[in-house]
């Protein structure tokens, strides 16, 4: 019954999942550890902070190379950086390329 679906919606993606209690508890603990505002100037909503926390968790796992190998090679990895303007608006840019 568990599932995870990632669908493209224009330039964004929607994540839909059904997790068992243990998987949900692990995910919640990981996200909660990175979910605090980054100071008084952090204007992101709690939902935005949770999304950013999930992406950061995935990037950290990819950067460390700790993911299991499937089909003979590591997962490709493209790093996306978020930049904030002085007004607090976020912009996005790709960097880092695909990892082999």
Termini gap = 33 Å
Structural class: alpha+beta
**Major sheet strand order:** 1-2
Number of domains: 1
Number of helices: 2
- Following the backbone from N to C, one meets helices and strands in this order, namely EEHHEE
- What is the helical fraction, as a range of percent? 25-40%
Largest sheet: 2 strands, antiparallel
**What is the typical, i.e. mean, pLDDT?**
80
- Overall body shape: globular
β-strand number: 4
Low-confidence stretches: 91-100
Rg of Cα set: 15 Å
Amount of beta strand: 25-35%
Describe this structure as you would to a colleague:
This protein has 2 helices and 4 strands; from the N terminus they run ββααββ. The chain has helices at residues 21-32, 46-64; strands at residues 3-9, 12-18, 78-84, 90-98. The strands form 2 sheets. Strands 1-2 form a two-stranded antiparallel sheet. A hairpin with a 2-residue loop joins β1 and β2. α1 (21-32) crosses α2 (46-64). It is globular.
Highlighted features:
100 residues, two-stranded antiparallel sheet, alpha+beta, 31% helix, two-stranded antiparallel ribbon, disordered C terminus, 2 helices, 4 strands, globular
List the helices and strands and how they pair.
Blueprint: E1 3-9, E2 12-18, H1 21-32, H2 46-64, E3 78-84, E4 90-98
Antiparallel strand pairs: 1-2, 3-4
State the gist of this model.
With 100 residues, the protein is an alpha+beta fold. The chain has one domain.
């Amino acid at each position: 019954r568990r599932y995870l679906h990632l669908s493209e919606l224009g330039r964004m993606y929607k994540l839909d999942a059904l997790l068992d209690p243990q998987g949900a508890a692990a995910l919640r603990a990981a996200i909660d550890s990175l979910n605090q505002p980054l100071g008084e100037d952090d204007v992101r909503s709690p939902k935005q902070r949770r999304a950013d926390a999930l992406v950061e968790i995935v990037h950290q796992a990819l950067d460390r190379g700790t993911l299991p190998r499937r089909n003979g090679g590591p997962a490709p990895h493209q790093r996306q950086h978020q930049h904030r303007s002085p007004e607090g608006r976020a912009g996005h840019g790709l960097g880092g390329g695909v990892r082999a």
